[in-house]
Write a structure and sequence with these properties.
Largest sheet: 6 strands, antiparallel
CATH architecture of the largest domain: 3-Layer(aba) Sandwich
Strand order of the largest sheet: 4-3-6-1-2-5
Strand content: 25-35%
CATH class of the largest domain: Alpha Beta
Shape: globular
Structural class: alpha/beta
Helix content: 10-25%
Distance between the termini: 32 Å
CATH topology of the largest domain: Rossmann fold
Mean pLDDT: 88
């Protein structure tokens, strides 16, 4: 019988109008049956705009993830939890049970700016279980190619750390693009790995856009001539800006890509009122997703990746029409939709 279960039953009839979680929080803020939680153990500024957060997961949070996956983190800002997803940067099954993410403060990113500026040890955050399909196949290919740009290196650093820890002897060639060494996250880690990679045959190609043009598919083909063959055999991976990834996907069919942001197609489309039943309504524009509309009024919907991948956020649309902001596809009443990538086209409602 778990401690959580014992405490929950003990307080079941005594806690009204509060919930048992409100009391267990006083004993240990990481004990909860309503939500997965974690506590920030340390914060390290790794570049002027980036911070590494080490998080101690609470009860129920899985640490047996696959290298390359991301985790959702909910931050209390003004009494509302705002959610974003960040790639895990440590290797799976950490001996100390801790999880690590790297957060870059983006100009348009309220949550990332908040975490980099204000996160401190002891802060309790909400977590979503690790998810994502950006990981190596099994068995590990004999030759692997990575192309990363900027903070797109974060899922790959987890994969590289995992391969090194496991003593894998694959040949890995990696092109990493960044703009100026001062703000290049994990650059020293990559250089050290290139110099002392152990059984892993690791080669790093650096591409500094402060002194060179933007990286494109032509440059990738010059540095890794067999990139196309590796992509076709599910052994080529890329993570970075949308423009680069689209170029690589068009030039090298089969390359596995990871996008950190949703392309908001048709942002000028008229929005509408989103009715969440007894939980409230929100009026938003055509570029605001159903998930974001709920967060604006304190309605937290289930979600994970916020990119339309994991399907954690799926809800049935009761009335109206929504549009997938990634590609413009529309969905009508009665269909199940991904709230993290769908925005209202006129008034819509959900029976929650």
């Amino acid at each position: 019988m778990s401690i959580i279960g014992t405490l929950s039953r003990a307080f079941k009839h005594l806690s009204t109008p509060l919930l048992p979680d409100d009391y267990t929080y006083l004993v240990n803020p990481l004990w909860s049956r309503r939500s997965l939680r974690g506590q920030i153990e340390s914060v390290t500024r790794t570049t002027p705009t980036t911070a590494e957060l080490v998080i101690r997961p609470g009860w129920g949070v899985p640490t047996d993830f696959r290298a390359g996956q991301f985790i959702g983190i909910g931050v209390d800002v003004g009494g509302k939890y705002l959610w974003r997803s960040y790639s895990l940067t440590n290797a799976p099954k950490p001996a100390d049970g801790l999880l690590t993410i790297s957060v870059r403060a983006l100009e348009e990113g309220f949550v990332s700016q908040h975490l980099v500026a204000y996160a401190e040890p002891g802060t309790v955050v909400r977590l979503a279980a690790p998810a994502g399909e950006f990981h190596l196949p099994q068995p590990v290919p004999a030759r692997i190619a990575f192309v990363t740009a900027g903070s797109g290196v974060t899922p790959v650093i987890s994969i590289l750390r995992d391969l090194t820890r496991r003593g894998v002897s694959s040949e890995v060639v990696h092109i990493h693009s960044y703009r100026g060494e001062e703000d290049a996250v994990f650059l020293n880690d990559l250089r050290n790995l290139s110099a002392t990679s152990g059984s892993l045959d690791y080669t790093l190609h650096e591409w500094d856009t402060a002194t060179a043009t933007r990286l494109d598919s032509g440059s990738v083909a010059e540095m890794i001539p067999d990139f196309g063959q590796l992509a076709a055999s599910e052994s080529a991976f890329a993570c970075g800006p949308t423009g680069l990834l689209s170029d690589l996907e068009e030039s090298f069919p089969g390359v596995k890509t990871e996008r950190f942001a949703v392309d908001r197609a048709g942002a000028g489309t008229t929005g509408g009122t989103v009715d969440f039943g007894s939980r409230g309504t929100a009026s938003v524009d055509g570029a605001t997703t159903i998930l974001e509309a709920g967060e604006q009024i304190g309605v937290t919907l289930p979600h994970g990746c916020r990119m339309g991948i994991c399907a954690t956020c799926v809800q049935q649309l009761s009335d109206g029409t929504v549009r997938d902001i990634r590609n413009g596809d529309t969905f009508e009443a009665g269909e199940r939709i991904r709230t993290c990538v769908c925005a209202p086209v006129g008034d819509v409602s959900f029976d929650l």
